[in-house]
From TrEMBL:
Protein's recorded name: B12-binding protein/radical SAM-linked protein
Molecular-function GO term, any one: metal ion binding
Radical SAM core domain boundaries: 250-487
Domain B12-binding span(s) in chain numbering: 30-182
Signal peptide coordinates: none
Species of the source: Desulfuromonas soudanensis
A Pfam family assignment: Radical_SAM_N2
Regions that span the bilayer: none
Highest taxon above the source species: Bacteria
Lineage: Bacteria, Pseudomonadati, Thermodesulfobacteriota, Desulfuromonadia, Desulfuromonadales
Amino acid sequence: MSLQDVLPRINRPSRYLGGELGSIKKDLGQVDVSVALAFPDVYEVGMSHLGFSILYHILNALDGVAAERIYAPWPDMEEHLRLHGEPLVSLESERPLQDFDIIGFTLQYELSYSNILNMLSLAGIPLRRDARSEDAPLIVVGGPCAFNPEPLADFFDCAVIGDGEEALVELCQALRASKAAGESRALLLERLAAIPGVYVPSLFEIDYKDDGTLEAIRPLRNGYQKVRRRFLADLDGAPYPTSPIIPFMNTVHDRVSVEIARGCTRGCRFCQAGYIYRPVRERSPQRIGEIIEKSLQRSGYEEVSLLSLSTGDYGCIQPLLKGLMDRYAEEKVAISFPSLRVGSLTPELMEEIKKVRKTGFTLAPEAGTDRLRQVINKGITEEDLLATTTSAFALGWRRIKLYFMMGLPTETAEDLEAMVELSGKVKRSGKGTEGGADVNVAVSTFVPKAHTPFQWERQLGIEETLKNQGMLRDALRRKKLRLKWHEAQLSFMEGVFARGDRRLGAVLEEAVARGCRFDGWREHFKFDLWQEAFAACGIDPAWYLRERSETEILPWDHIDCGTPKDFFLEERRRSRLGAYTPDCRTGECSGCGVCDFEELRMRLYEEGELPLTVVTPEPPAGEERYKIRVRLRKGGKARFVSHLEFMTVIHRAVRRARLPVRFSGGFHPAPRISFPDALPTGVESEAEILDFELYRPLSARELVEGLNAELPEGFRALEGVSIDWKTPSSSVSIREVLYRVELPEPVASELPARLAAFLASESVPVEKAKGAGTVTVDLRPGVLDLELSDGALLLRLSKGSPVLLAGHLLGMGAEDARSLQICKTAVVLG
């Protein structure tokens, strides 16, 4: 069964289409190295990951290298693949995963590990490294979880530790040279181990003591005792994609994302990212402006997100934001911040943000008391937080989300109670806000991570977590505050793998064999299967949550993040004293050991330096209105794009083409385009009728050409005509819709009689699936005529689903009916 046969039978087929604008398809027969970039989660999550996109464009810019994408198939797709023995394939060329030279997995979250093994299984690739043949793809991993890669060490060939922009290029070059020299896999791995930042697990052996702790980490190659993290020294000069891939479906982060800085030196002692991404390296305002301008032009997005571990700490955030607002406010482009620290969210910054949209703020006090915030080196006080929330409410914001962690080192019952009291104070700081202040509270369980001062700490168990969650829920409810929390079992599993060792590989393999998938998704997480897997392997998972001795060999001790263990030990001791370690961005050097103060150093842009050059666009003229009606084709793979996705495709094409389409008002402006009734997913069309309302004159030919220059494959504007702007929209003017259904052979001999009987009936009730149940609908009122012609069934309808009708007439079930080839051929307007 081909992909085209499967797509009608699954939910959200646009996950698997490929062919998006901005995607790159090279001739794989003309390249030396083929790379499958694999994201171990579903498409809409993976497409939102910036690092994945950066590597995709960097690799495809290389001569002789092709990079394609693959995402974890949703369970319904996996079921079809396994049922029909079909392999997992890439989006761009539908090439089987096992035929690539390199498969590169990004490790963003410990609970995605089961998906990695499942994807290898679906690709027909042996899970364990030592079971693969000489010509098997090279399995490479990277990302933040690669800083403790040991739970996966039996499954991958090498890992890129740290920044991947340069290291992955060098890895491809090494593979090319190895292939040319005809080297064995063992020699290739030796070659890869010589690349700075590349970890080859087969070149280390692990010895264990009787108590389960590590006896030794033994390198098997001279000079390869530790693998030092790879650093990208100059972020401003690094390649950055300005032609992003534009998905058909809405993704988790549906916007232009621009990394304005990498690294953070605030020194929060629980935060792994704050240590593994040091030092701070900023992009210049000019470069940021260039990236945003080009990315908006080429994407049609309506929002820009400024990414950083702490966006408000960017050296010249104020002039940058003002410049962006001045440039894009008229175009109703929103500027968003995923990470704003309490101390950096000034009233001046909030004034700029609210000019386009008053998005809610997420603030992270982390702990309920100033004492515990001193322990974790948060560097903010209750007074700082309340000053920020008071300003936000006064400036017109209504919604604030507070983020806390439970189980932090030295936490007491008083600290938990203080979370509730502080949340109540924040709500009271919005007293008098029009409509009332809306404060939501989110609490997660602290998970100790490798390469932090808290890597030795104990993690709360499941029972303790549930008890604390219940107390917080009840106490917050009494204050009329809502609580969201992270599932206790999910935090437990994250903690096990975050500080796990190689022995967990057997558990992971066993869990996948028992059916574990998408463990980060609450509805798919099966804790009982994980418990069975641990028991089958004779491993107590709670052992990994214990407090570690400071003299113990840790599973990741051979991975060098740039900061020595002595620094982390000193920070741990300072935490018990509540001693503050200043941010070296503004204070003295903390001695973390990352910088060499020559090539590797902080790169900052001070306020006012390199001002952004902007040009304010001409605003739309007056209140003039014009309307053009366009007939559009939707065929090929595009027929699997849903109606809502189709609307998004058109909206973004309009923005990219800079067509003079009028927009609605408010904080969420949308183009004034009238769409037809929803076409069932999987049905083609030669007659999608759209009405475009314009604010200045434009010929129908210009509109059609402008659209076609920006529409993705499968969509085509066929013709257009100018109409009076007062003409009712096509969506309310349609009298008849004509469909052609290609009949599967052989055609039943009784079909003509069946059609005649249908037309002679006054009512034809049928059951139709709706949600988890069914409803009864009458097919007859919407059918004007039925006809057989040249091996096809012609439907003339005033309303109703052609799929449901054709399935009934042909005696098919719903799934088979969705596989029929149906085309909307014409519409008749009244």
